[in-house]
Here is the input.
Amino acid sequence: MWGVLFAVCCLVSAGLGCESFQRKFTRKPKHPAAPPNPIISFQDYSREMTPMDRYRKHYLMFDYWNDELLDALQETSPSPKRLKRSSAEALNELATLRGLLSEEKAAPLDRFVDERVKINEQLQSSTMNPSRANALWRELELQTRRIERDFSWRDVVDHLNP
Here is the structure.
């Protein structure tokens, strides 16, 4: 009696504990599941960008990189790599904005581009101490407000190159 009970306990423990033993006795599906069929819906993105779309895109990119630069200058120990990258990208987008405007509207923007070139040269060539970072932050904040006031994408609708 004890021998039969011992044998049943051994079989039950072996059947429950061994994963390969359980796998031998699980039922396999007769037919493998069909691969999923993707639903393909094509969208037409071939529409050419309007001058307003281009200006808005570059203005928003300038705004993003400029905010990154201002945030980097606010840090206690600014990352030189972050300063250099955000400054270069903001300058690039500002120069692109200048090219999208008519000559009469682009002339005032030249002053901001020239100032930004000088600031970019300073940031690319030297390390930043906290007092210099604070001075640059104030200068860039003032310039940002002027650009937002005069060159926002809503205000230049009539001055875009075709």
